[in-house]
Amino acid sequence: MKAPLDSVLLDLDGTLVDSEAGILGSLRAAFAEVGLPVPEQGLGRDLLGPPLYVSLPPLVGEAATEAIVLAYRRIYADTGWLLSTPYDGIGPVLRRLADRGLTLAVATSKQEAAAELIVEKQGWGDLITYVCGDTPRAERPTKAAVIAEALTRLGSRAGVMIGDRHFDVEGARAHGLGCIGAGWGYAAPAELIEAGALTVCAHPADLIPAIPQMIPAGRG
User: In degrees rounded to 5, what are phi and psi of residue 159?
Assistant: First the structure.
């Protein structure tokens, strides 16, 4: 018999918070600081998801990426993370899930320290048990690696991922987890369904009815 779901893993950028302004603004400032022009195609939402040390090399090369990422991390740590704003309705959804006995964890490719600051700033520290992200030494370069760390901390028997990019779907699948798409985030049209998301929700409030199987028997 399949165990009932006991945990929910949540992406951060594009799922819990809108961080586009802080990330892309800090990235533009980093380009300016190191004296490099922004690529002709610009710095768009397609960069939001994987680590910048993965997404930037095809645009600017390895050497430039190293300099940009160093500047970006300092700028983002100073001011960029403060521009993250929660999506409308996400707070009450987190509360409902936690109240029903599910353990919540953030699984993000963002630097873990920055993710922790954002979670605490939003007042979610009592709802989210673990915040798992990448390390300064790039020891978790894929979403699958981040999810592996989150599952280890959770000791989860059965969980589900919620995220807004195909990286979330693919990372969850690598561990035998289903992924529910956050359709209010940064994915291109049809990206999540094509990647194999269980379903795509248009609004945070849609998560609760979309996953009734999350609720253990006798809870809530």
Answer: -135, 175
User: For 40-47, what is the mean pLDDT?
Assistant: 90
Distance from C-alpha of 97 to C-alpha of 220, rounded to nearest angstrom: 9
pLDDT of residue 131: 98
Q: How far apart are alpha carbons 55 and 27 in whole angstroms?
A: 12
Tokens of 148: 């592996």
Quote the CA–CA distance of 64 and 42 in Å, as a whole number: 16
Residue 149's contacts (CB-CB under 8 Å, 6 or more residues apart) are: 107, 132, 140
Question: pTM for the whole thing?
Answer: 0.93
CA pair distance 52, 54, nearest whole angstrom: 5
For position 1, what pLDDT does the model report? 43
What is the CA 91 to chain-centroid distance, rounded?
16
